[in-house]
Amino acid sequence: MQNHPVYTDNDPQNELSTLNLGPTHPATHGVFQNVLQLDGERIVSGVSTIGYIHRAFEKIAEHRPFYQITPLTDRLNYCSSPINNMGWHMTVEKLLGIEMPKRVDYLRVIVMELARISDHIVCNGVLGVDTGAFTGFLYMMEYREAIYEIYEEVCGSRLTTNIGRIGGFERNFNTIAFDKLRKFLKTFPKTLKEFESLFNRNRIFIDRTRDVAAVTAEDALSYSWSGPILRATGVDYDVRAMNPYSSYEDFEFEVPVGTNGDVYNRFLVRNEEMWQSLRIIEQALAKLEKEPTDIFHADVPDFYLPPKEEVYNNMEALIYHFKIVMGEVPTPTTEVYHSVEGANGELGFYLVNDGGRSPYRLHFRRPSFINYQMYAPMSRGMLLSDAIINMSSLNVIAGELDA
Amino acid sequence: MARPVRFNIHPIQADTKDNISLANMPEGYTGEGFFATNLNNVVGLARKNSLWPLPFATSCCGIEFMATMVSHYDLARFGAERLSFSPRQADLLMVMGTISKKMGPVLRQVYLQMAEPRWVMAVGACASSGGIFDTYSVLQGIDEVIPVDVYVPGCPPRPEAIIDGFMAIQKLVQTETLRRRSEPQYQKLLASYGIQ
Amino acid sequence: MGKFSNEELLNKLNAEFPEQLTVVGEPFGLLTLETGRENIIAVLSYLKNDAALQFIYLTDITAIHYPEEEKQIGVIYHLHSLVNNVRVRIKVFMADGDVHIPTATELWNGANWMERETYDLFGVIFDGHPDLRRILNVDDMTAFPMRKEFPLEDPNRVDKKDYFFGR
Predict the structure, then answer these.
(1) ipTM value of the model?
(2) pLDDT band at C2, cuts 50/70/90?
(3) Do A192 and A271 form a contact (C-beta atoms < 8 A)?
(4) Which residue is closest to C1 within chain A, CA to CA?
(5) In whole angstroms, what is the distance from residue A251 CA to residue C141 CA?
(6) Which positions ≥6 away from B119 have C-beta within 8 Å?
(7) pTM score, two decimals?
(8) Is residue B40 part of a domain?
């Protein structure tokens, strides 16, 4: 291993101990390794090793048609899979020049904001668990189950959702989904308020997290941070506000911004983002009532599979079905970069197409990967317990780290 | 397109009055102040209801495991209350998620550090067979490096499926002999993996 | 939507670097330029440090492999100017066998891991990088997996019979 300081003095007082915060560790939420050199409890230096779950997504994507890449994107940030799915669909729709009807946009916004809430539930809950407070996590996870039930109504699956299709959704949201959504909106705010009351003014929690791992905005920007951790340092960069996609410009929401980028600020920013997401979902539900209720996909027969009844009865639909599945539809030979605001930051998709059924090159700009590179330099001089809290507040998801 | 739904927009009150099951007593001879039975039965019963899992959670299946552990599905009912992250104190190695070739030696090391009796559960398609990732960097099933007792398919498996796998492990634990490690079959299996 | 248009950006760049940039196109409104590896650091630092442009945010560094072209490997930079809300894409192509490019880590710390990933997957050597070694794959791997000639599936599998897969 390179980069370790070599101690030449034979005085045992000066010896540094090596701690392998190895790939399997209760505190690493995911598989990544940090070999730390400790002077007592203080970290002198650290070397990060990742790649323990490198699944070669980008290589697989070159061999799959566009609609088969959606399950791959699921497994990037698996705590908030719908955001990845929608981001990919929007990239392909941008490439193909498909205009989405407003209702589809609003439904997508609802699904994405639910995903953002579920990811922040996990991140903040686990941050609490790392400081020793298990109760908040346990109560919040119930609402993750409620969100899973909403996903199940829409797409059939809980975690790795594969929600939506290129051109919209696979089926319309039924009344049960809306009922569950309304129930969630009624019951979740109370629990979120309880969760905040457990942590926000808690003396122990504040002592653990205030002024720990403070980061200046210049450092954060030079390391290309994005997402809630960048906003906690004071930079209000949110892709939903800067480059709005999926009709986000029709919604009124605030982008919470912190002050000094420490762990406490990141925690508060994520909590406030959950409140803003609830606000967006309520607005979306109100807007949906004004839209016709039977549109759930764009009118693109070349890329959106026709319903099965028509395929078996109608020649035109049969031909479209055949062309889509066999990849006989020509696609533009150009390149596109589209980014969405993932739960961790700017999730970007760089797609270079060669006209066929699969991309020529697909690159995922993964926020966890880019955010995590600052971890080792940042943890220099920190106490070990602070470094653990820092790691969980960065919300590094291993699937997105290695891709 | 509503269809009749069987669950959860109007939850019913839980009925806990007569719903608690007790573990069945094994067969044996009772008398005044004594109970004689086969040691295997008693030890099997004790082991099965106090398995300490090591959650080796790498990816998405780990999140479903988290959902299994918390109050909704509650794996702690089955005795898995104490998750052990140290292999020395764990009974059951639950491998949840994709294991890449870089991670293979780490997994093997963790398995070797576990003390007998130990069982291995491969949760998810990736741990069972590589899953959807048929690539150069992913181990196509953890049974290339360690012997596996129960495979739970799914991507990710529902918490009910993980519990079902756990119950299958419990059945194995209950019906096995006391010292599995001394059986020739088991020794041969370990030898085929290069484990002494 | 940005505070200055792609044309103004292009004029400024052409004034600063005459004859050194070629415009590949503007797919979906994102100005895409191509330059050579001698100028790339000068171009990137001009874009970053100029008071009017302020492309202070490095979105991504990645690469692409065109085996049939003369210059096969291309390194692609995406930059973003947060105050002006403008993005730009810069490509540098190099012939295989001579895949060196100066590193961008002096300009942005964030380029460190992005370049390591590009090295790991494509074999692009970044001159001046403080710690250029593999990041995602195993350390003793010799090939560069994202190149087109590298197979997706592991060739050493014995249990996947071609007969069942229709090959």
Answers:
(1) 0.92
(2) confident
(3) yes
(4) A243
(5) 49
(6) B51, B91, B92, B93, B149, B150, B169, B172, B173
(7) 0.92
(8) no
All domains in chain A, ordered by first residue: 57-402 (1.10.645.10)
What does the pLDDT look like over A182-211, one tens digit per residue?
999 999 999 999 999 999 999 999 999 998
**Chain A contact present for C112, CB below 8 A:** yes
Within a domain: C116: yes
Nearest chain A Cα distance for residue C9, angstroms: 19
Closest alpha carbon to B181 in B87, B94, B122, B114: B114
Task: Find the chain B residues whose C-beta atoms sit closer than 8 A to any C-beta of A.
Answer: 1-3, 5, 7-9, 56, 58-60, 62-64, 66-67, 70-72, 85, 97-98, 100, 102-103, 106, 110, 132-133, 135-138, 155-156, 158
In contact, A164 and B159? CB cutoff 8 Å: no
B29 at the C interface (CB within 8 A)?
no
Say whether pLDDT at B41 is over 60: yes
Residues 357..376 of A with a Cβ closer than 8 Å to B: which? Answer: none
In a domain, B23, yes or no: no
C135 and A363: CB-CB below 8 Å? no
Of C59, C82, C85, the CB nearest to A365: C59
Backbone angles phi, psi at A48, to 5 degrees: -95, 140
Does the distance separating the beta carbons of C146 and A59 come in below 8 Å?
yes
Residue type, A355: G
Domain coverage including residue B109: 52-192
- Would you call A398 an interface residue with chain B, using a CB distance cutoff of 8 Å? yes
Contact (CB, 8 A) for A293 and A173: no
Residue B173, domain member (yes or no): yes
Contact between C100 and C94 (Cβ < 8 Å): yes
Is there a domain that residue C1 lies in? no
Model confidence over B153-187: pLDDT tens digits? 999 999 999 999 999 999 999 888 888 888 888 89
- Helix, coil or strand: residue A46: strand
A297 touching chain B per CB within 8 A: no
Instruction: Characterize A351-373 residue by residue with b for buried, 16 or more Cβ atoms within 10 angstroms of its Cβ, and e for exposed.
Output: bbbbeebbbbbbbbbbbbbbbbb
Contact A235 C82 (CB under 8 A): yes
Among partner residues B101, B102, B136, which is closest to C152 by beta-carbon distance?
B136
Q: Is the pLDDT of residue A225 over 60?
A: yes
Q: How far apart are CA A58 and CA A402, in angstroms?
A: 11
Give the best residue of C60, C65, C137 to mutate against chain A (max A CB count within 10 A): C60
User: Does residue A1 register a pLDDT over 50?
Assistant: no
Residue A169's pLDDT is: 92
- Domain harbouring C26, CATH code: 3.30.460.80
